[in-house]
UniProtKB/TrEMBL annotation:
Family annotation (SUPFAM superfamilies): YhbC-like, N-terminal domain (SSF75420)
Ribosome maturation factor RimP N-terminal domain sequence ranges: 10-85
Organism listed in the record: Propionibacterium ruminifibrarum
Gene Ontology terms describing biological process: ribosomal small subunit assembly; translation
Assigned keywords, A-Z: Cytoplasm, Ribosome biogenesis
Protein name per its UniProtKB record: Ribosome maturation factor RimP
Length: 157
């Protein structure tokens, strides 16, 4: 399977469902291949796609792959999902979709810290760390992951 051919088939289908192709991985598993597709998007509340969004897109993706030559005749398993809560924040859109959530940030230099995302633009985010807003440039972040809150504070962004 040629990944660039797959992307050219998948991107218009995914875009038609107001989603983004976040990741595409093809893994050989014996005689079969596993085609793993990760989707992202704003969803109805700006926080990412719903399970129904993913299900609808999956049906359309499956149909498009059946009609195309991108997968060839080899048997494959299609796995489609959304970014999980433990997925690192890698693009400004990932940060924006997690506005007001707690995030653990590992900077390129310095110690890891946890703060609440307050604002996001194309170059970085304003993060509330212990009551003080700290500007964090995306180029200063080695890794950032949302922290799951069982009883989140009812705060506005």
């Amino acid at each position: 399977m040629n990944e660039s051919a797959l992307v050219s088939v998948l991107e218009p289908v995914v875009a038609a469902h107001a989603l983004e192709l976040d990741d595409l991985t093809v893994v050989r598993a014996g005689k079969r291949s596993v085609l793993r597709i990760t989707l992202d998007g704003d969803g109805p509340d700006g926080r990412g796609p719903t399970i129904d969004d993913i299900a609808e897109a999956t049906r359309a993706i499956s149909a498009a792959l059946d009609e195309s030559d991108a997968v060839g005749d080899a048997p494959y398993t299609l796995e489609v999902g959304s970014r999980g809560v433990s997925s690192p924040l890698e693009r400004p859109a990932h940060w924006r979709r997690n506005l007001s959530r707690l995030v653990r940030i590992t900077p390129v230099d310095g110690d890891r810290f946890v703060g609440r995302i307050r604002a996001v633009d194309d170059t970085g985010a304003d993060v509330d760390v212990d009551g003080r807003v700290r500007r964090v440039g995306f180029d200063e972040v080695r890794r950032a992951v949302v922290q799951v809150e069982m009883n989140p504070k009812d705060e506005e962004a």
